[in-house]
């Protein structure tokens, strides 16, 4: 019998009715023979020795200082408590006559184990009845850490932990937004989903939230999702730019949940790192704002931001980045290809500058062993590769910018002339780009931005050849273009790779260098995304509409030295589940975004909570208005008014897209 075993187990295993066992044990590990026990038990309990050994009815007993494994209870007698005189040894021959005294072994220098337990002198021994529930857990149960995913597999722990962890998550985000949700009456919210761009997926994700119901009337919805920005609807949302915000200097949300989980009879502390809470709380941009009441039942959230063209069309992105980099003393062409914005054809002053750069490149191309290749893109109303051309001579470029009117919108058209990245990094001799996501929210008039740490690679179908500029299957990696190729899906699952797949390719192909995509490349991409948020902060959603969010799709390319270059930002990134990996990535990303924006200010009622594991958050907080906004406004103070006026002028045509 082991020391430290629970009283119930000792009762069951140590003493049994009609047992032939010759030995019995104290719970502290001291063995006593059957004959000694027959002499010892009557003295302590007042029961005859034969009756004590054969009585099938037992209750756990303990001795202060020394515990018995079990003691029999006489059915007709009440439990008694006997106080013994002070003794030096429970085997004192005065107490146990006709027996030799117990000779204690000399103590060794090493720490005594539980089996070599020695009682202290002058111990008062008291016998009293103890309930099994009052017995403390054994001391040999070690508390170690275990991941949340492993702990969540036990429904008993998950049932207790999930509501508390969800409360921590809501408090973390709501404090950052400066709101305190107030729910009155029936907790039921309505959502509206317009047609297009896999609207069925949005409906499925919202339908999984049992406290939401669908509606066909966008005006009565608490959450509205449309493929293209509905300018009439966004004008109905109240402005929040007059709301005053300040940092709460007295309160900071804490991520602390100390309820251990019992696995294999061992108590383990739960590590919350795999929930992704510290991607928000651990960000340098995180802060708690002074909160005001947020009445959820009468509040609305829209999935588009006002004046998003400053980020989401090619002209707006280039102009915003150029203004920001110039104000900060940086060179925009360190992260963005050399670009010229042409508004008036060949007579435009920017086109004259382009001609100078083109002639300079033409003279040095033999020395640099490069080509003088440029890519022409529409300055606005361009999505999924529409209107993009690759040109390798000046005549083709002049022909491409000849049209001044957009045929689809009948509005003036401008062009982006951009230096083509002639030496891109290739995957199996084919060109590719990187698609990643960012989320911008404006809740209660406070703007924040998040970077999603997962994404995917889009590859082309045809091997790279700089001499063939007419084959779009070589140069344009957009899925809307590549899916029409006969080789679509020949090399990868619908021409898609995960970040992990790309890392395996780097490990296999670049053996002379140890390149880690997650530590060497992705942080640079994240830094560029953060710069774009800084660049558009004074111009996007200047009225702080209550309340808005938007998911943007960023496209990057890597040159032969694995340096990332930003290509464009999309307001309507494709949400089609065109590969097995995207079937996992896109729903997970959208659900993460909804957990940040919707589940925190439109919380689930208690009775609708299930015990499914809490999804891991993969959004990194990269911008907060109260932390980063003041620095940006200070650096761009001389250009803000000019850019805001420009946004009002562009709004008349830059966002008019056909569904």
Automatic annotation (TrEMBL):
- Give the superkingdom in one word: Eukaryota
Which PANTHER family does the UniProt entry name for this protein? CHROMOSOME UNDETERMINED SCAFFOLD_125, WHOLE GENOME SHOTGUN SEQUENCE, TUBULIN TYROSINE LIGASE
Task: Report the protein name in the record.
Answer: Tubulin--tyrosine ligase-like protein 9
